[in-house]
Amino acid sequence: MPIFSAPDGTALAVHLAGSGAEPPVVCLPGGPMRAGSYLGDLGGLTARRRVAVLDLRGTGDSAEPADPATYRCDRQIEDVEALRKHLGLDRFALLGHSAGASLAVRYAARYPHRLSRLALITPSPRAVGFDVPPAERRRIMARRTGEPWYATAAAAYESIAAKTATRADWAAFAPFYYGNWDAAARRHQSGEAGQRNGAAARVYNAPGAFEPETTRAALGAVTAPVLVLAGELDWIASPAIADRFAGLFPEGRAVVLPGTAHYPWLDDPAAFGSAVGGFLA
After folding, report:
1. What is the pLDDT of residues 84-113, one digit of tens each?
2. pLDDT beyond 80 at 1
3. Which of 102, 109, 215, 278 has the fewest CB atoms nearer than 10 Å to its CB?
4. From edge to edge, which strands make up the β-sheet containing 252-257?
5. Are 216 and 248 in contact (CB under 8 A)?
6. CATH superfamily of 3-129+198-280
7. In the chain, where are the structural domains located?
8. In whole angstroms, how far apart are CA 255 and each of 6, 116, 190, 192?
């Protein structure tokens, strides 16, 4: 586990896995501010490519910064650039999941010439100012009406939408993050509390973190191929949002994986490996 220094001196950890002669794919975790261990082997991606998973500042094996304000998404762009330099890469493939995709997009807008490929996995649309209307979220969730947990989870969503949700509501809502609410999904979900820096998460999306109009314009300079991967059942980054997102890039394309939700590498490892591994090859 290599440790390198951010521009402000914060010690950051990067976890290297996989094998191969090609430069590693740099992976940015979501959460926001969740340790990269939840990504696992990304559905077997590490069997196909070398990967370098960054623990964002204050998460996993990375140190907490002296200034908590630097947890804000835009304040971490230079951490990614420092990792590029640490790995000795001129251009590199970058993968961001969920809220980590916001950081990947902000990096792409500032350093478009450094990217060889960009994969945005079920990306949060905050960085580009898109949103999934509540009615569309409900339509996506309604596809799960046959599940035994649906009624309780759907009721919890109404509290979430009203911004009155309790911890119990969020726990009840958890099955909607997964295409299959099975034992593996429950194990994955149970690890979140110990992996996420809650205080940092509250700063990550704070006012000033995003400049959507400026970012959307800047993404036109990203000439690298871009994959925006959506889960058919994902209420955060819907297939419609993925199409709009991909349209911001000259070489962007959206792919929707059937039967998957916010963690598609868990729901369908083979389909995820084919789509993302093939794109990065």
Report:
1. 999 999 999 999 999 999 999 999 999 999
2. no
3. 278
4. 3-5, 11-17, 51-55, 25-28, 92-97, 115-121, 226-231, 252-257
5. yes
6. Alpha/Beta hydrolase fold, catalytic domain (3.40.50.1820)
7. 3-129+198-280
8. 34, 19, 28, 27
